[in-house]
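Pipeline run #58 for the internal structure catalog. This entry was flagged by the ingest filter as a single-chain record with no existing model, so it goes straight to prediction. Upstream metadata was stripped on purpose; only the residue string is passed forward. Reviewer on rotation: M.T. Logging verbosity set to normal.
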Amino acid sequence: MEFLVDYAAFLAKTLTLVLAILAILLTLAAIRSKGRQTGGQLHVNKLNDFYKALRERLEHSLLDKERLKGLRKAEAKAAKQARKAGERKPRVFVLDFDGDIRASATDNLRHEVTALLTMATPEDEVVLRLESGGGMVHGYGLAASQLVRIRQAGVPLTVCVDKVAASGGYMMACIGEKILSAPFAILGSIGVVAQLPNLHRLLKKHDIDFEVLTAGEYKRTLTVFGENTEKGREKFQEDLETTHELFKNFVARYRPQLAIDEIATGEIWLGLTALGKGLVDELKTSDEYLAERARDAELFQLHYVEKKSLQERVGLAASVALDRLLLNGLSRLNQQRFWQ
């Protein structure tokens, strides 16, 4: 027992030291960044070069010198003729969205969309590689609005789902004129859920009062610490139903071929089944699709990077860790399909 007490004291001292060092680093970072302007930068990578490098590396390993030399000569001749003819290949702008509960990737997406719309034409294409299990209504509403800008500009939008686009993720996916899905990707979950614990009885058991003062009948419907009423529950449920109806109407607007009342039950489907229900248009991975497009188009991957201070980077790392913890917990409870 004495050993355990000593060990606990050691852990407490170590934790205190780590927190003190972290606090000092954050303070120094705040002082250094005070008055310093932060911004971001748009990174553009030509994916054709990536695919070309893969092919050339394999050719170099498999072909003899004579065949390799002849192949390179033929490629150079074809490229020269194309330049003389003034041929212009269509452009494909590739975006990535890895969504968390708050849809924080929207901060970068909005700048990427703004940038590509300065040059993209209806002859070009935007491909979004999307991965998200959904999250907060307002966050994914804004993310979806960024994709609507692409549609309104008349630029074709293709959405590729390799793993998951559920709830708020599918709200984004449905805006695509074409949705491609891996065979076992998760799609759907057109539903709304909200959940919160209530500790009122626990507080009451220990003679602890908690006051909730409001102005407005429905300023608070359900609370964590206060006593919830049936009237409050009914109003809360009414708000959920209203949000669900808006969600259904939004999806139906961009996917009119769906039997919306049949699929807007909060269920999820794998790509193979989702294809039959009209949730996706084709079973194909993003790798396959982009490799095909690279043969006849110029592919440009856009990624906006925000410059962050040490404080922001530490906070972001903590936030990501918390999101992963929450999502892992929700997965164990089979609640990865929520849109809240």
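catalog note: The mean pLDDT is 85.
catalog note: Strands lie at 40-46, 91-98, 125-132, 157-166, 178-181, 186-188, 268-270, 282-283, 298-306.
status: ready for reviewer M.T.
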